[in-house]
Amino acid sequence: MSTNVDKERLFPLLKEEYLALVDLGKSLDEERFNVKSSLPGWTVKDIFSHIVGTESMLVGKVMPTIELPSYDYLKNDVARANEMWVESYRKMSGDQVIKDLEEVVELRLASLGPMTQADFDKPSWTPAGPNETYGRFMRIRHFDCYIHEDDIRRALGLEPHIDKDHLAMAMSEPETGLGYIVGKRAAIPKGSQVIIELYGDIERKWLIEVGDKALAVESFSLNSPDHFAHLRADAFTFFRLIGGRVNLSGLLDSKVSLLGEVDLSRQLFENLAFTI
pLDDT per residue over 192-207, tens digit each? Predict the structure, then answer.
């Protein structure tokens, strides 16, 4: 089933995030652009280049076709497509990357601004799969930009951009994928009930029941499940976890609590990352 996303809620956040990335890029010198990030093989400049590339495709620019070195961190076709843009910018200065980012952001905002809710509800391919809506695609773009801003800030030792509205919007993506995270990524067994509870900047409480498939539910149907996992986490830490952005060691007790059957909750905790 496709996902309709409120354009009037999403567009201001996407615009704000685009402009935040431009401003952040303009504040950096070449030395800081070349700082290594936590993303395999990528510097701070490479992250900006990736964003430029994705947004450039959305305004109709053709992906460069170049011979990629055999980087061992390229695990799938999506990663290789992303790397085409990144590689094409590697010999350019960080300032040039940000100049291109500013130009493509201007084009994207000019395109997105006049769109109606009906435009956002139109069928569209998305990185999460086909048969979705353009609004869902733009929500994924917001998620991607927001988490990459955090990648850049962490690499440079800057304070995180923690904003309740941005975090709530970004958290809509893992919420859509709770069944996949619990059933596929964490392989929680059939007959289990799972609670994921977030606190801090935003609060959420998700219930997932595992039958033939893992499904998010409003209330549990069984009083005595075969297994029970309960993970409680700081909301921004959970955002980083589902992006595979943090070292798991040191988080337990300080930012994440494992309740219920602790071993099963740990299995969930160690397999939350679901981004490509």
Answer: 999 999 999 999 999 9
